[in-house]
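ARCHIVE CARD
SHELF: 3
SLOT: left
DATA:
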Amino acid sequence: MNDFRGLAEVSRVKLLGAVQKRPGSRLKELADEVGLHVNTARDHLRILIEEGFVCLEPAATGTRGRPPMVYRPVDDPEANEAARERIDRAREHRQVLRRLANGDGTQPAALDELGDDAGAQFDVLYEHLDDSGMEPMVDEEEMRISLAPCPHYRMVGDEREIACAIHANLVRSLLGQVPGPLELDRLLPFTSADTCQILLRDADYPGAAIPQEPEAGSGAASEQGSEPRQGPEAGSDPDDGSQ
């Protein structure tokens, strides 16, 4: 499993966004949404499944016969083996990751009072960011992670903003796969020419989130806050029964 592989192709990122926007969609619906041939879309979705970002399951139709297969984001890690492995790997590597950070750990001091559940959530997110080649750097005090711009950097203009919204939704999904109080506060794209930031918060005390500090970024994309933002509709949504 390699998260970078899952997010390295622009078409794959767009398909992930389509699944996030319309969970329970069939293959042809998703292919039409992003303008891909069905066979190409199937290959990209297979990789997203293998990397733990999407699951394929039978639709609940309430009728007899073989149900159509539909795609959904991974909310429950039990629905996807790769998602389970990511969580297990993060837990196993927890002590190793801390030692690599000069003994202070890869977790900010602000997590100490939130308990082990928050630490486990943070580890899973860090594992994803590190595996994706985003070079995460953890703030020693605040729940802030600086990272190199992700593989979506090839997207420009409106598409870049859509890509950032997709990744913000993915961060929410990863944090939600492990029981705990952490949630995404904001994703700040390009706070400098070569840095983005993820800000987290305690869901039980959202008012304690990190205040926004203006920075001299490129302004290529707006921040992605605690509520999902949807990109513009792309293409038609036919439902002809294809899987």
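SLOT: right
DATA:
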Amino acid sequence: MDIGTVITTTVKNAKASECLKCGLCEQICPQHLHIRDLLVEAAQTFKKIK
């Protein structure tokens, strides 16, 4: 899987809970964020709001 596939899938689905957890976003993040962990937190927050 390449980053183009990840971006296309992410934009298409647009849900933190549907993260593929492949880690490619973290590899290219210039701020070195733990994006996968942040998406889990975001998904839990949105689940509570529903």
